[in-house]
């Protein structure tokens, strides 16, 4: 029996997630949205692409949560996107209300699923979903660090004119302005980037990574990034469904790791069939620890506002 992944929100991120997952033949996919016709049309379009891609993924669209029943993974992308000049925090209250509606319906039909949260502001929405669902922490994971580290890797590869396959990068902390790209843990073919890129250039790359989403919003004017966020989700889905035990930076509910308790913060996480299988604690310098605490504090401010 094939795995089943449901995606809440058939906008650019949700539909592109469906595309990546179906084209890798990871699972059958259900796209669900409140707008009638949109998930059905995009689902049918993807289904008709499968013979060309030579993939047996079944894709369907719906407005009824009953069609998502017994999903192995549910990806929540629902919410309003960022507009120019809007911070992730501006989205807080609107997307929190949407999350309240969505999570209850998801849990009703797929009580054993793993939730991957994509809606912004990411860390706060993951915390809201965790509290609303009543799931154990291994079954609620936020997508942030995979995307942020991919941006960091892309910019490093561009600067050094090397294959992105040679570049590994780690980004910790909240998804936003307070993220903590760790240059000394980021390497090119095993060599730390701090030995390959001068500090001034590296600092600019780090800042561009922090501003990665805003840079794309500025160009698009009427939307936000979706190809890279969707690819990041797909990597997480693959790690879980294939039980790969893959180490990926994800937003995880911390219970004392890194000196942080009761908050979703981006950390290195092992993903397998149970969802989160282990948080990896790496040694941080006092400066890095302070930056991570600052990032966690900004998450705390948001979750305090919405009372989760």
What topology does this entry show?
Layout: E1 4-8, H1 12-23, E2 28-32, H2 38-53, E3 59-62, E4 73-76, H3 92-109, E5 114-117, H4 122-133, E6 140-142, H5 145-160, E7 167-172, E8 180-188, E9 191-192, H6 199-210, H7 212-220, H8 227-241, E10 246-255, E11 261-272, E12 275-279, H9 286-306
Parallel strand pairs: 1-2, 1-4, 2-3, 4-5, 5-6
Antiparallel strand pairs: 7-8, 8-9, 10-11, 11-12
Helix pairs in contact: 1-2, 1-8, 3-4, 4-9, 5-6, 5-8
Overview features:
three-stranded antiparallel sheet; Rossmann fold; alpha/beta; 308 residues; globular; L-2-Hydroxyisocaproate Dehydrogenase, Chain A, domain 2
How would you briefly describe this protein structure?
This protein is an alpha/beta fold.
Report on the structure:
The protein is an alpha/beta fold and 308 residues long. The chain has two domains: 4-142, Rossmann fold (3-Layer(aba) Sandwich); 145-306, Lactate dehydrogenase/glycoside hydrolase, family 4, C-terminal (L-2-Hydroxyisocaproate Dehydrogenase, Chain A, domain 2), CATH 3.90.110.10. The chain contains nine helices and twelve strands. The chain has helices spanning 12-23, 38-53, 92-109, 122-133, 145-160, 199-210, 212-220, 227-241, 286-306, and strands spanning 4-8, 28-32, 59-62, 73-76, 114-117, 140-142, 167-172, 180-188, 191-192, 246-255, 261-272, 275-279. It has a six-stranded parallel beta sheet, with helices on both faces. α3 (92-109) links the parallel β4 (73-76) and β5 (114-117). α1 packs parallel to α2 (38-53), α1 (12-23) packs across α8 and α4 crosses α9. The longest helix has 21 residues, at 286-306. The chain is globular and about 50 Å long. The termini are far apart.
